[in-house]
Request: fold
Amino acid sequence: MIVASLAFYLFAFIAVVSALNVIFQRNPVHSVLWLILTFFNAAGLFVLLGAEFLAMLLVVVYVGAVAVLFLFVVMMLDINITMIREGFMKYLPVGAFIGIVLLVELALVYGGWVMSPQAEALRLAPTPDITQIDNTEALGRIMYTQYVYVFQAAGLVLLVAMIGSIVLTLRRRPGVRKQNISTQVNRRKEDTVEVVKAPVGKGIA
Reply:
């Protein structure tokens, strides 16, 4: 029990410090690397809670795909750090307002959970037998029944994010030859094939 508590506080402390570094780092590449460390520690917390499927999902999907994609996009974009710093004070009131709203919402959620009459009964509810249903099946039943529309909406959000990253990294440079599929499909045989009759015993210059 003591080892589990120590592991929880260790993972939680590193996760909080990593999350703060994601915000306060000046280099975007360093922020993404701190974000990867945050995901790893969150996965450790999931393992301590017995949700090994979510921990694996966090490492494989978020660390192995999403965070690496963020890293590639940040490295490919020509980000002007000086220009971003100049506009910090301009957007500080809006950012502070959004942050306060999020804190208020989190406080309302936590307060509702603590003061709700059903909260104590839910906390004392027995854990389902792991031999009857595992984490993957339980998560799938909830995700694809009660939250199927939210799941599809999340897929659309990821699709929009993927299209946005492609648009941001797509650059038009002069003098670069690109493939024109319509021209290739509509070309005629006379424009691409030349029949030459070579003299006997001589080559073609």
